Amino acid sequence: MPELPEVETIVRDLRPKVLGRRFVNATFYWPRLIQNLTEDEFCQRISEQEVMRLERRGKYIIFHLPGEKLVMHLMMSGSLRLQPADSDPEKYLSAHFLLDDDLRLSFCDSRKLGRIWLVDDDALVTNGMGPEPLLEDFTLEYFIEQLRGRKAPVKPLLLDQSTVAGLGNIYVDETLYAAGIRPSRIAGELTQDEIARIWQAIKDVLTRGIANRGTSLRDYRDGFGNPGDNQTALQVFRREGQPCYSCGTTIIRVVLRGRSTFFCSQCQK
Ligand SMILES: [Zn+2]
Q1: Are residues 152 and 214 in the same domain?
Q2: Measured CA distances, 128 to 57, 165, 247, 261 (Å)
Q3: I want to staple 71 with a disulfide (CB 3.0 to 4.6 A). Which of 21, 117, 157, 215 is the partner?
Q4: Distance (Å) from CA 143 to ligand 1 centroid
Q5: How far is it, in rounded angstroms, from Cα 177 to Cα 180?
Q6: Per-residue pLDDT tens for 20-30?
Q7: Could you give the number of structural domains in the chain?
Q8: Could you read off the pLDDT of 61-91 as tens digits, one per residue?
Q9: What is the pLDDT confidence band of residue 223, given thresholds at 50, 70 and 90?
Q10: Nearest alpha-carbon partner for 268 in 236, 234, 227, 233
Q11: 56 in a domain, yes or no?
């Protein structure tokens, strides 16, 4: 569930607090969180490593350490919170990391689908991902080329991280509403003008999501454990049966390629 705006919010919250801090140790309550090392290897390697940089790539959180990268993916229900080391333990704790300065970074995850890696090069994990939608390399020309001739509906192509990084079910439905395009439209049959509207809507919807500090429908919490505000800005997602804010038509829910999909049949063509 955490998508680009949620992960970006967490990274922005944590960055000023963790830069220059050192990992003291790690404790795992759900060792299968670690994808590429044993628990012992992980704990040995992370100890005493300093956080040089903290970045987001798509939905991944990347801690740059002197010799390697600690990469995290929150998947459906994960959250990452920073608290004083003596705070009460969190619910659904998968792991916690003690940092010097008496800080504790908790990876909480009710569904236990989250993943972490400790690797020399984060590209080993993020390999094949498309451009960042809010950076300059996500050009309209690139986006047109990605959709050209494609026989799939546009929605699954936007969910595909190799097309563009960071979108998930919430922000794709909101993007297609903002662009006035039905999620089931065949991508290769969209006009250049329609593709340009989707391209702009991706940026607008994600920018708004970040400004609102993410969407909290269930599990998502920011870097300090607080909910975001973007759920109040949603136009279609999880609004089936309610009137469209623009035209009053009832918002419809359908299942498209296995994903719940929400749209307005009047505003989206
Ligand atoms: Zn409408």
Answers
A1: yes
A2: 12, 10, 40, 26
A3: 117
A4: 26
A5: 5
A6: 999 999 999 99
A7: 2
A8: 999 999 899 999 999 999 999 999 999 988 9
A9: very high
A10: 236
A11: yes
Assess whether 132 carries a catalytic annotation.
no
Burial class (CB in 10 A: 0-12, 13-18, 19+), 145: exposed
pTM comes to: 0.97
Q: Is the residue at 186 inside a domain?
A: yes
Question: Measured in angstroms, how far is the CA atom of residue 267 from the centroid of ligand 1?
Answer: 4
Domain interval for residue 247: 140-263
Q: Which of 93, 126, 159 is the endpoint of a domain?
A: 126
Secondary structure class of 252 (helix, strand, coil): strand
Q: Are residues 89 and 167 in the same domain?
A: no
How far is ligand 1, taken at its centre, from the CA of residue 202, in Å?
19
Q: Name the active-site residue from 15, 185, 253, 259.
A: 259
| Same domain for 110 and 151 | no
Does 221 participate in catalysis according to the annotation?
no
Q: Which of 43, 45, 72 is nearest to 56 (CA)?
A: 72
Cα 129 to ligand 1 centre (Å): 33
Question: For residue 137, how far is its CA from the centre of ligand 1 (angstroms)?
Answer: 32
56, 57, 59, 104: the catalytic one is 59
Catalytic residue, from 3, 6, 8, 174: name it.
3
d(CA 199, CA 130): 14
How many angstroms separate the alpha carbon of residue 170 from the centre of ligand 1?
A: 17
Please give the C-alpha separations between residue 204 and each of 143, 181, 207, in angstroms, as whole numbers. 16, 15, 5
On whether both 71 and 122 belong to a single domain, the answer is: yes
How is residue 263 written in tokens? 């749209």
